Each structure stands twice: as structure tokens, then as C-alpha cells.
Amino acid sequence: MSGHSHWAGIKHKKGLEDVKRGKVFSKLGKMISVAVRDQGGDPDTNPRLRVAIEKAHEENMPNENIERAIKRGAGEIEGVKFEQIVLEIVAPDGVAILAETITDNKNRTLSEIKRILSEHNAKLASEGSVKWMFSQKGVASLNSAGRDKEGLELTAIDAGAEDIAWDEDLLTIYTAPENIEILKQNLEQKNLPAESSEIAWVPQNPVQIDLGQREKLEKLLEALDDYEDVQEIYSNLK
Prior knowledge:
By secondary structure, the chain is α+β, with helices and mostly antiparallel strands.
């Protein structure tokens, strides 16, 4: 596998100083509510919920906001009904994008996404025409600084890795989505806590583009990322 091309891997991570707290917390609240609605409110048996709560804690989202989102997803609090949609996007130079969205108004979200894409010479694709280029995986990362890389690879395989990839000192570990928590626990038992973990769409055959086109693409990804209904973005950019 050539590497994980999740948007987080090619952008400068936005902290709360760059994005309004309300927008960040709104995205996280939607993510938590949908995870609860689909697979229940117990993070011990719901990997998606567990990952969403971990992300909320990383962004210092108040516990009361997290609990309210869980109750909303469980139907204990009246509120808007969220729908999760994975949008398939074709960008210039053979770049394919998947955008995970959560919305209470599908028509509004599609209209806004189409506007953003039109401004950056990209377009929505028909269902299935892009998603086949990706596989859903559990993804965890380890920093190898000061450690033996070959030893880390063997440890990752013992912990349940299906595949691995290096990006300088960062080791990315891939496993089946349902096994991501087992992988994390196995790593922790070996005193190797993962720096990050998630369930993500991983490109099967990443593409390479020149620097000028990459800069244009990153402007598109930034515009999508700024839109409140977009939760996660994945591309097949190498």
C-alpha cells in the first residue's frame, strides 16, 4: 500500500485558533450523534463512536457537549435528523476525492458542495464511480523517532497490521476497520500507544501531480474542509 492520503496527511492541521470553536464542535457533535444512531451509544462496542469521542477530546470539546450529542443520537433529545452522505468527487489530473458529510438538509449541502467544486474546476461524480478506488481501513500511526524501524515493523505485524507504510519517521499501520481497537490495545500493551487512529478511506493506487496542480488542489480541499457539513476528506493524491 502506497500510503494514506487522508486530507489530514497533506494539510496543516487546523486547531481551534484557525477555525471557530462553534464550527469544530458542530462537526464533532454531528459525528458523535450519527455514530450513536447507527451503532449504539456504548463506545466499548461502537468503534466509530469511540474514535469520534477521542477526536472531541483532542479538540477540548466539553464533556457536556459530548454527552448531549450522544443523547441526541440515541433519541433522548429532540432535534434535527442528520443524514450521512459520502460524496464522490472528480478533480483535475485524475485526482479522486471522497467527502464524508453529515447534514440535516441534503439539497442544501449538495448545492453548496457543487458551488465549491465549480469554483475549483472539479465536479461531483456518479455513485460508485470514485469509491471503488478506495478501501475502508482502520488506520493508526506511530512515530519511530529514536526507535528501531525494523523492530517497529515486526511489532506492528504482531499487533495485527495487515499492511504498513513509512513517511520519514511516521509509520502508518493498516488493518480491517473492525480491528482498529484491537490493534491499538495490542500496541499499548507493547508500550507503543498510537499517535492517532481512525477508520478511513485509503486509496488503492495514489496518483502523483506536479507542484502547481497540487497547490490548486489544496485550495479545493481547504474550501471543502471549511464547509460545516463536511466531516472528513480523502483523496488518492500520493
